[in-house]
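Colleagues,

For the teaching module next term, I've prepared a clean inverse folding example: a structure given as tokens, and then the sequence designed for it. I'd like students to try predicting residues themselves before seeing the answer, so please don't circulate the second half yet.
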């Protein structure tokens, strides 16, 4: 059967299912020249967010003449030079529905965290403090959430926000439709001006750079709370830090960073930041769904 490289791992049940189908499955994580060598002998490669497959990697695979399929276990495929791969005859797929709910729930968790001083309270109580009067929070109900990117994840977040009594605005690329009754489609400028909370769910375009920088933060409501569970590069981290220090941004929930693992300790240690290490899809349920979807794609494409 086929040789399948799972360079960033996969749910154990999915790995076993592939082995049961008779495939040669390699779960070792390779980098650099070792990765290129393995790509020459693989029929398919599955990656998550840790591995980037750029043109030199794809060229190495082409030299081997075997690679037919690249799968991103997750939604975004911006860590793959997918246009180049497809032009060279290599199919590129993802698992667009498997982790949407998990990422949406983490975004919502960050919204709660930066509104109710959850991290502050936890740390201070472990230090023997009882700072009840200092932690006057803000309710999500009645607030306006602006969602930048109304794909599957954005819509899942919008549904949950509406259930909490939030008004939802969204903006996206021209031609993108939204199946979310009650949500209003507005331009980016209007969304920035009217939102109490802003959550990003867009890919990073390296040719355009950060979507939110100093000018965009200045255009937001004073005291806005920002959540980024999409890609680190879409937010200018230096501009975000300035906005946090000035109070323009009251709090930020961050799961993704310009560099991962991030070395931006100044941002991580800001008292008004809720930080997680790119765990948007890291739930048991999402990992099971991602694994099952990957197996289905591999079976459809490679047989077994």
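(Answer key — instructors only)
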């Amino acid at each position: 059967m086929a040789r399948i490289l799972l360079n960033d791992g996969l749910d154990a049940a999915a790995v076993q299912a592939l082995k049961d189908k008779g495939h040669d499955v390699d779960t070792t994580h390779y980098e650099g020249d070792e990765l290129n060598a393995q790509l020459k002998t693989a029929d398919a490669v599955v990656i998550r967010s840790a591995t980037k497959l750029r043109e030199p990697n794809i060229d190495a695979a082409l030299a081997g003449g075997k690679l037919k399929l690249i799968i991103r276990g997750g939604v975004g495929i911006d860590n793959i030079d997918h246009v180049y791969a497809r032009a060279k005859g290599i199919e590129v797929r993802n698992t667009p529905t498997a982790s949407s709910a998990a990422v949406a729930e983490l975004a919502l968790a960050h919204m709660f965290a930066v509104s109710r001083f959850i991290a502050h309270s936890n740390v201070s109580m472990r230090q023997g403090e009882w700072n009840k009067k200092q932690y006057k929070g803000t309710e999500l109900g009645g607030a306006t959430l602006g969602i930048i990117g109304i794909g599957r994840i954005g819509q899942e977040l919008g549904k949950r926000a509406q259930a909490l009594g939030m008004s939802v605005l969204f903006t996206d690329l021209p031609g993108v439709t939204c199946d979310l009754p009650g949500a209003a489609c507005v331009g980016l400028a209007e969304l920035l001006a009217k939102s109490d909370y802003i959550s990003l769910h867009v890919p990073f375009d390296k040719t355009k750079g950060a979507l939110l920088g100093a000018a965009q933060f200045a255009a937001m409501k004073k005291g806005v709370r920002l959540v980024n569970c999409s890609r680190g590069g879409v937010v200018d981290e230096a501009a975000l830090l300035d906005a946090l220090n000035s109070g323009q941004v009251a709090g930020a929930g961050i799961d993704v960073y310009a560099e991962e693992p991030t070395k931006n300790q100044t941002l991580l240690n800001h008292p008004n930041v809720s930080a997680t290490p790119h765990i948007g899809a890291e739930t048991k349920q999402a990992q099971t769904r991602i694994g099952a979807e990957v197996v289905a794609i591999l079976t459809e494409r490679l047989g077994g």
